[in-house]
Amino acid sequence: MRKVLARLCTKSAILIGSWAWVPKFLPQITAFDKWVQRRTQGKWSLLRLAGFPGVLLTVTGRKSGLPRSTPLMCTPSSDGILVAGSNFGGPDVPAWVGNLRTAGEASIRYKGKEIAVTARELHGDERATAWGEMLKTWPNYRLYEERTARTIPVFLLVRSA
User: Fold this and answer.
1) CB 3.0-4.6 Å disulfide test: which of 42, 77, 117, 148 passes with 112?
2) H helices within the chain, ranges in order?
3) DSSP bridge pairs for 110
């Protein structure tokens, strides 16, 4: 029964994530997810409840200088953790992307653990390979790519030394 429920949650999340109107509610979804993560000390998130890997990325704001946290879907890889600045395929790059490009370092909460990471934006063949891996985790990235004229940035997050 548990596996059936988990599969249903995952399929429902993929369906809901494909709807073009969902990005309008991104601020509310993000706020609720942060609340869930705070209440559970990072052990649960909306993504985890839906059966997907996720991180809470915290990076210093390039304008404010304050820590900014954003829940993100991620794809664990042999080299680290991959994240995409998809913004559900919206026309604008998410604010966290600019912050991460400027800072280069951040922290993530992954599976309830706080980890310091160094970020590297991927380009060319390296990005294409990572994008293929990410599509296996979240097939809607393909829809997001079709919805926007911009190239969706992809970052590799690696544990800091």
Assistant:
1) 42
2) 2-18, 26-39, 46-49, 95-103, 124-137, 140-147
3) 113
Which pTM does this prediction carry? 0.86
**All structural domains of the chain:** 2-159 (2.30.110.10)
β-strand partners of 107: 58, 116
Place of tokens 């059936």: 4
Predicted confidence (pLDDT) per residue in 37-49, tens digit: 888 877 777 777 7
Distances (CA, A) of 62 to 48, 93, 123, 130: 29, 15, 22, 26
User: Highest mean pLDDT range out of 11-20, 30-39, 91-100?
Assistant: 91-100
Percent of the chain with pLDDT over 90: 55
132 touches 55 (CB < 8 A): no
Q: Which residues pair with 70 in a beta bridge?
A: 57
For 95-120, write each residue's pLDDT tens digit.
999 999 999 999 999 888 899 999 99
Cβ 96 vs Cβ 59: under 8 Å: yes
Q: What is the pLDDT of residue 6?
A: 62
Closest CA to 105 of 89, 115, 116: 116
Task: For residue 73, give the nearest of 93, 94, 101, 46 by alpha carbon.
Answer: 46
